[in-house]
Amino acid sequence: MDDSVKIDFDPQKNTMNIDKHGLPFEDVAMLDWTSADVLECKDTLEKYKELRFSAVAKSSADGELYMVIFTVRDQTMRVISFRRASIKERRLYREHDET
Known about the structure:
About 25% of the residues lie in helices and about 40% in strands. By secondary structure, it is an alpha+beta fold.
């Protein structure tokens, strides 16, 4: 990841993510954003009122594909969720990568 990209997250949400998915948000820094598939997500919860993104990206550490949900606040990536990509997400990533 480009060193100029800052990553931020809620520490309590990070703990919950580790409990649920076994992955700390800090590991988002090891993703290769040059080949990531990033989609804009419409957030249906009115209370957030911010644009969210989902991305499937490959880890430079283990070569596996991961799904990240995030928003951007003041030029900082705010991680919301981080998990291993599903079978469907991996297939779509590979199909997109071949085009």
